[in-house]
Design a protein that fits this description.
- The chain is mainly beta.
- Helices cover 5% and strands 53% of the residues.
- It is built from four helices and 47 strands.
- The strands form seven sheets. The chain has a 24-stranded antiparallel β-barrel.
- A hairpin with a 2-residue loop joins strand 20 and strand 21.
- The longest helix has 23 residues.
- It starts with a helix and ends in a 5-residue tail after the last strand.
- The relative contact order is 0.10.
Length: 750
């Protein structure tokens, strides 16, 4: 390791940048040329025909209607893991029906050891549903291998719905759709039944339609996942979502989708109270409307008036010991419809790290320094027209003023946001696109635009790139461009990736997210992923990752080399070890905490992270990670401990505690603590209660969020929300603010 560090130091920054570019281009050319010759010349055709029913289908998991027996079954499934290509260990059947309004999927899952069936969650969109026994469904309704939908259900009837983009590489976990589903456990098998309205899906209207489809099952007692159309296990947990590996769903004839008019009005009464010297209680009463209109079977218009997101859970607290801003995912329903189409930027290198650049980041709309800015109205059109993807967004936010804290006055004028996004599909799995973004308040504006492309000549290799530019009424012309090119190649045992990014000093997308600007970055990683299947280890990820960040003059800002080792165990769980060596050049003081300064200098430091996680399917599951080593001119010690307790499908307790202690020369050591805990109880799959509590020592704030959610009919909800914020300064905890609201929505699909 020391030898390699010294090797890098022998070169100037300009040389590193020049050779890095050349290496990246040569690697892309080397990989690109031979890959086309390796294409599969004789793929097996997987096809299933949906059966047209004129019976009234009740979604109950019983399959009592006689037409279920008329439908052709899918009964051959192949393992993704642990034994790739082998037949599933437990017999499974899937049948498909449809009528004028819905498509139905019926799963029958035989089980030779019912006592080992794992089902411990009844909540919709429960994060760990894949750790239960489950069945899943992937639909590509345009049959274009680019975008799709994923559904999963466990034996208790809890389900997930996901939107897929980028060929299945990206998931929108917050996307929701109106479906009916039920599951039932019997003596030697369990069943699951989906009913999905055609009005909830987008597709090309034809007399005879063919959709891309895959179905599969997770058998948790064996840590097994099997699927109808085989997919390469080299994609790990994302393998099942690969839209390039789908079968054909045929037989869909005479489907004439309605005009897809959906109305979702809401009424919200409530009250809020602030404590302290100026204690005050205010009543709250709001009404609003969300409207969805299907312009045709491919394009959907969404309108919102007096938008409210009272039921959306608060962001999870995070520790920030870096010089850069944190990233939080979008959770608000209006912005999630068709969100994948607006993606324009550089993707995350891992789930734990923020994206380097997003030109459009919807959380810039209606949120300011943790405060909700009222949305007066908004409109959006998303969908496809032949090979073209279309996305248009326009939102008006109201003015907002808050001077409760004299040191943190928030003053936001009435603002208009607009976005235009167009993409054009090319070949099989490739595309080009453009985007335009405008933020306007009075005479002030911020604008951004760009072009991007994705080229995938074969399924396991791709090249991506973008160019973007910004303009701002408050800034003089400068280096306001950004561009990026990257590539990834993988097979069953290796993954190679590389990219180059250049972001100008004055690049400033105010409706976007940018990790750092005024930089040139070279990144590369190599992963070796063998499947030893020995000594209790199923799979290993191991390999180095290299990041070099220079400023626009070619001077070093950051160099990071890390070597990661991640081991997945046969019986569930994992352990990992990661070694990081970092060099940082600070050209200005870094105030890491109030009056705690890391001075201008060049730093080199090494740290280690190690962790272990038990099987998440068990009643009690634990995770423990430690992080220790040098930190700039001092050191850092920390740990992260979490656990889940699920004694039944109704009760779930989750907690996470993170501790960091930083010691710097000439400064008193300081601690950073974050705690989060959830208690959830499900009375049924339609009624559940949740309490979410958090504490962050950095701002000494404790917050609690209680939610009662009753789905009294599909798409229609009643929410009872009670939020409290406590101030932890001064050695005690005092109540600052309380809010209690009830929200009733009614989904109407005339």
């Amino acid at each position: 390791m020391i030898y390699h560090l010294n090797f890098w130091c022998q070169f100037s920054s300009d040389s590193i940048l020049r050779y890095g570019r050349c290496f990246l281009l040569l690697a892309i050319c080397y990989l690109l040329c031979p890959l086309a010759a390796n294409a599969d010349l004789g793929p097996v055709e997987y096809k299933i025909e949906a059966y047209r029913t004129f019976q009234s289908i009740e979604v109950d998991g019983d399959f009592n209607e006689s037409d279920w027996q008329q439908a052709s079954p899918i009964n051959q499934f192949f393992q993704i893991e642990p034994d790739e290509g082998e037949s599933i260990s437990e017999p499974t059947e899937v049948r498909i029906l449809y009528d004028d309004k819905n498509i139905y999927f019926g799963f029958t899952c035989f089980e030779s050891e019912m006592s080992k069936l794992v089902a411990n969650d009844m909540r919709h969109d429960a994060q760990d549903l894949h750790e239960n026994d489950n069945v899943f469904l992937i639909l590509d309704t345009y049959n274009d291998k680019r975008n799709g939908f994923a559904f999963r259900i466990n034996p208790l009837g809890a389900y997930q719905d996901r939107a897929l983009t980028n060929g299945g590489d990206s998931l929108n976990r917050s996307w929701d759709v109106v479906v009916e589903c039920q599951a039932k456990v019997n003596s030697d098998h369990w069943t699951a039944e989906f009913g999905i309205p055609f009005s909830q899906l987008r597709f090309d209207k034809n007399d005879q339609m063919t959709w891309g489809m895959n179905v599969g099952r997770g058998v948790r007692k064996n840590n097994e996942e099997a699927i109808w159309v085989p997919v390469p296990r080299q994609y790990g947990g994302m393998a099942k979502y690969r839209l390039g590996n789908l079968g054909s769903l045929t037989g869909l004839e005479g489907i004439a989708p309605s005009r897809r008019l959906e109305l979702l009005p809401y009424v919200l009464p409530g009250m809020s109270r602030t404590e302290g010297d100026t204690a005050d209680t205010d009543g709250v009463f709001d009404i609003g409307l969300d409207l969805k209109y299907g312009i045709n079977s491919n394009l959907t218009a969404d309108l919102t008036f007096n938008t409210d997101f009272a039921q959306v859970e608060a962001d999870e607290e995070q520790v920030n010991l870096s010089r850069f801003s944190l990233f939080f995912p979008e959770k608000r329903p209006f912005f999630l419809e068709g969100a994948g189409l607006f993606d324009f930027g550089i993707g995350r290198s891992s789930f734990r790290r923020p994206p380097p650049l997003l030109l459009f980041y919807s959380r810039r709309i209606g949120l300011e320094e943790g405060r909700s800015i009222p949305i007066i109205t908004g409109g959006k059109i998303t969908g496809k027209m032949g090979p073209y993807g279309v996305g248009m967004l326009n939102v008006f936010t109201n003015e907002f003023h808050d001077d409760a804290d004299p040191d943190d006055i928030i003053d936001v004028p009435r603002t208009n946001y607009s976005v235009l996004r167009l993409t054009r599909d090319l070949f099989s799995g490739s595309r080009i696109g453009l985007i335009g973004i405008n933020k306007q308040d009075g005479d002030a504006y911020n604008r951004a635009g760009g072009l991007d492309f994705s080229y995938r000549p074969v399924d396991n290799f791709d090249v991506r790139g973008l160019w973007a530019r910004t303009a701002d009424s408050d800034e003089e012309d400068g280096t306001d461009n950004a561009w990026y090119v990257g590539s990834t190649w993988r097979n069953d045992k290796f993954r190679l990736g590389g990219s180059y990014t250049d972001i100008g000093e004055d690049f400033n997308p105010k409706v976007g997210y940018i990790r750092r600007k005024g930089v040139r970055q070279i990144r590369s990683d190599v992963r070796y992923t063998p499947w030893p299947r020995r000594f209790g280890i199923r799979r290993i990820w191991t390999g180095p990752e290299f990041d070099l960040v220079l400023n626009q003059n070619g001077d070093l800002e950051t160099r990071s080399i890390r070597f990661s080792n991640w081991f997945e165990l046969e019986k569930g769980g994992r352990f990992q070890v990661e070694i990081r060596q970092t060099a940082e050049h600070l050209d200005e003081d870094f105030e890491i905490r109030d009056d705690v300064i890391i001075p201008i200098d060049e730093y080199s430091f090494t740290s280690v992270r190690a962790g272990v996680q038990t099987d998440e399917s068990k009643i009690l599951a634990m995770e423990f990670d430690v992080d220790f080593g040098e930190f700039y001119n001092g050191d850092r010690r920390g740990f992260d401990i979490g656990g889940t307790f699920k004694p039944s499908g109704r009760f779930a307790l989750e907690s996470q505690y993170q501790f960091n202690r930083v010691s710097l020369p000439g400064e008193d050591p300081f601690n950073v603590n974050v705690f989060g805990g959830r208690f959830a109880y499900s009375f049924s799959t339609q009624l559940f209660a949740k309490l979410f509590a958090q504490w962050n020592s950095s701002d000494e704030v404790v917050s609690t969020n209680f939610l009662l959610n009753y789905i009294y009919r599909p798409g229609s909800d009643f929410y009872l929300v009670f939020n409290q914020i406590y101030d932890g300064n001064g050695g005690g905890i005092s109540l600052e603010e309380s809010t209690l609201v009830g929200k009733l929505t009614y989904w109407w699909n005339p």
